[in-house]
Amino acid sequence: MNSQRPVNLDLRTIKLPITAYTSILHRISGVILFVGLAVMLFVLDKSLSSEEGFADVKMYLTSPLAKFVIWGLLSALLYHLVAGVRHLVMDTGVGETLEGGKTGSKIVIAVSVVLIVLAGVWIW
What we know:
By secondary structure, the chain is an all-alpha fold. The chain has a single domain, classed as Up-down Bundle (3 helical TM bundles of succinate and fumarate reductases). It is built from four helices and no strands. Helix 1 (about 20-50) packs antiparallel against helix 2 and helix 3 (about 65-90) runs antiparallel to helix 4 (about 100-124). The longest helix is centred in the N-terminal third of the chain and has 32 residues, at about 20-50. About 10% of the residues are buried.
């Protein structure tokens, strides 16, 4: 038995590589999209139910909170899309090395930040 093994893993002190952060964020954005899809389908159903329902949805969607939620859902969609494209590129054999993975993760974060900021400008 190796006596150098850590006894208690403190998750706050473990330094994860950038590839781990992009992978975790990809999974989190997928969960957000799954939940957000249910909310947006409910809103769509309400808006198509009647004229009053459409007017209610239109009123709700103009509020700052609704714009923030929409921006959050759109941000999750954009990040998930960019990270998914990275995975598709890696499936072709490009960027499978350790350095390629790190570079790909940095590109995903940079492109996602730019797209998310542009989406925020578009929504607000």
